[in-house]
Amino acid sequence: MSYFDFDALHIEDRRMHEVKQLSLQLASTQASLLLVGEAGVGKTSLARYIYTKSRSARLYCLDCKNAGGFDFSRVDGGTLLIEDLDCASVALQNDLMKLVERADGTRPRFISTSRRDLRALVKQEQFRQDLFYKLAVVHLELPRLEDRRQDFQNIVNFILEVSQIMHGKSGLRLTAEGFDRLNTWNWPGNIRELENVLERAVVLAKSSLIGPESIQFEAVVEDMDLDFAPGMSLSEVEKRLIIQTLELTAQNRTRAAQMLGISIRTLRNKLNEYKEAGVL
């Protein structure tokens, strides 16, 4: 997220409160942390928050989706933030293992983020088991926005205030109908999507009131490479869609079933079929 502040926001949701408290407890340690959750829930913001609460001298950032220009030789202690660790190539995993094994005092503290369950990738031999154990000493799982109803109004108010400051505005507020429109959306893009929706409303506001007509949603599913092609059977399309939706939701079957519009029982039966066929 672009401007989320874990200190400024009052958190009431029990799971998120526990995540924040554990983050503060671990900030001053050297333990390697793995932050897991759907796209847009705030993994990178939490990672940076943990860094600011630590005594680390410097922060290095490695994006596993675009790691070609990263120079491992310049890493000298400090903290290494690894974004989208689940997307690390074999070569990048090998480079990270070399960094983990440094014994010359230049080994950094590792804080990683992942959308997918790395344990599942280890079982599928897509991720090094030894690297997993080194980088995932402590897991922190961030809940999706739809599951944080206790915090929703606080989050909306915070983002609305920050958006106004960013764009040189003040005095804007949501009408009851505007808030209801926000509150009934399921937020597939989580807090990042909420930021986008509210910032657009602030920028386009013609009066001090933001009503439902100013709330525009874009139901975009991020980073799903649905490699469908004409002539492909419906069963194959269904299988790929189910598998990739599970990847998007970090193997959260309940969430995947909701996104697919099927029951959890139907999803479970489909996965059992794929296992018997040797697909999973």
Brief descriptors of the model:
280 residues; alpha/beta; Rossmann fold; Helicase, Ruva Protein, domain 3; five-stranded parallel sheet; two-stranded parallel ribbon; globular
Secondary structure layout plus pairing:
Blueprint: H1 14-27, E1 33-36, H2 43-52, E2 59-63, E3 79-83, H3 90-100, E4 109-114, H4 118-123, H5 129-135, E5 138-141, H6 149-166, E6 173-174, H7 176-183, H8 190-204, E7 209-210, H9 234-248, H10 253-260, H11 264-276
Parallel strand pairs: 1-4, 1-5, 2-3, 3-4, 6-7
Textual characterization of the structure:
The chain has 280 residues and is of the alpha/beta class. The protein has three domains: 14-141, 3-Layer(aba) Sandwich (Rossmann fold), CATH 3.40.50.300; 151-214, Helicase, Ruva Protein, domain 3 (Orthogonal Bundle); 234-276, Arc Repressor Mutant, subunit A, CATH 1.10.10. The chain has helices spanning 14-27, 43-52, 90-100, 118-123, 129-135, 149-166, 176-183, 190-204, 234-248, 253-260, 264-276, and strands spanning 33-36, 59-63, 79-83, 109-114, 138-141, 173-174, 209-210. The strands form two sheets. It has a five-stranded parallel beta sheet, with helices on one face. Helix 6 (149-166) crosses helix 8, helix 9 (234-248) packs across helix 10 (253-260) and helix 10 crosses helix 11. The radius of gyration is 21 Å and the shape is globular.
